[in-house]
Automatic annotation (TrEMBL):
Binds 2 divalent metal cations per subunit. Has a high-affinity and a low affinity metal-binding site. The true nature of the physiological cofactor is under debate. The enzyme is active with cobalt, zinc, manganese or divalent iron ions. Most likely, methionine aminopeptidases function as mononuclear Fe(2+)-metalloproteases under physiological conditions, and the catalytically relevant metal-binding site has been assigned to the histidine-containing high-affinity site. It catalyses: Release of N-terminal amino acids, preferentially methionine, from peptides and arylamides. Removes the N-terminal methionine from nascent proteins. The N-terminal methionine is often cleaved when the second residue in the primary sequence is small and uncharged (Met-Ala-, Cys, Gly, Pro, Ser, Thr, or Val). Requires deformylation of the N(alpha)-formylated initiator methionine before it can be hydrolyzed. This is Methionine aminopeptidase. Belongs to the peptidase M24A family. Methionine aminopeptidase type 1 subfamily. It comes from Robinsoniella peoriensis.
Length: 291
């Protein structure tokens, strides 16, 4: 049981300021929402100013790594070459690739092609071909702070059908971001993304979602993109999470590779696309940390 903070006590957030001059109003807003029946975030989901600064630096490296991949990715290249670029760039910039050895993941990046939904494992034998759509998902640890974002790349001449899937998925991120507002429930974001995907004839993967990030690779909250409006945890300034819908051309059903235990595929073999943005909730709305 936490001792109730007095108004003149030092705030729980680590700012060193008096509670009444710091998070008292913040907590008051959340308590009011809680009384209305909303789920409110735990304090460990609210990053301090210092933590946000550290996470922002990590995110800058994540962006630089993806920029480096963007410069080199092309047909004829193996996915292992992408792994090398990510690994070497991360180390050069002073970071650590978060996926490497994470729960046994063997490489420094996830590279997922066409019907691979996510968690594709780089391989010397897997060669990018003209017409492929490829997700490169980069996660970095820098000074102990975690960042995570991913992009889609179209290799050579991609069919109109696949190009549209990639574009709509990217557009859905902005549709979701438009619903990232402080003191509003997170479900509005997932609902907006789902509605946009469905309007375009696509489905959204239900079994895997996004997550809080920053002090750990994967933190609360779990983030779904198939939610109902006005549901889910309340967004509060200082929360950091990923928006990373996996949007499928066909069924939303997926399965995990039973040999490598990681790679997720669409059940019907139709393509899947994913973009991932790492977002901070602010007093005004949101700030994109990594994309
Ligand atoms: Zn405070």
């Amino acid at each position: 049981m936490l001792k109730k903070l007095g108004r003149n006590d030092v705030c729980w957030c680590g700012s060193g300021k008096k509670y009444k001059l710091c998070h008292e109003g913040f907590d008051g807003k959340l308590q009011k929402l809680k009384r209305k029946g909303y789920r409110i975030p735990n304090r460990n989901m609210i990053k301090t100013k210092k933590q946000i600064e550290g996470i922002r630096e990590s995110a800058k490296i994540n962006i630089a790594i993806l920029d480096e991949v963007a410069k080199h990715i092309q047909a004829g290249m193996s996915t292992e070459e992408i792994n090398r670029i990510v690994h070497e760039t991360t180390i050069t910039l002073g970071g650590i690739p978060a996926p490497l050895d994470y729960e046994g993941f063997p490489k420094s990046v996830c590279v997922s092609i066409n019907e691979e939904v996510c968690h594709g494992i780089p391989d010397e034998e897997r060669i990018l071909a003209d017409g492929d759509i490829v997700n490169v998902d980069v996660s970095t640890i820098y000074n102990g702070y975690f960042s995570d974002s991913s992009r889609m790349f179209c290799i050579g001449e991609v069919s109109q059908e696949k190009k549209k899937l990639v574009d709509i998925t990217r557009e859905s991120i902005q549709i979701g971001l438009d619903e990232v507002k402080p003191w509003q429930p997170i479900g509005n974001m997932g609902h907006a993304i789902h509605a946009y995907a469905m309007k375009n004839g696509y489905t959204v993967v239900r079994d895997i979602g996004g997550h809080g990030v920053g002090l750990e690779f994967h933190e609360d909250p779990c983030v779904s993109y198939v939610t109902k409006p006005d549901t889910g945890v309340i967004l509060a300034p200082g929360m950091i999470f990923t928006i990373e819908p996996m949007i499928n051309m066909g069924t939303d059903e997926v399965f995990v590779d039973d040999e490598n235990g990681w790679t997720v595929y669409t059940d019907d073999g139709k393509p899947s696309a994913q973009w991932e943005v790492m977002v901070l909730v602010t007093e005004e709305g949101y700030e994109i940390l990594a994309y």
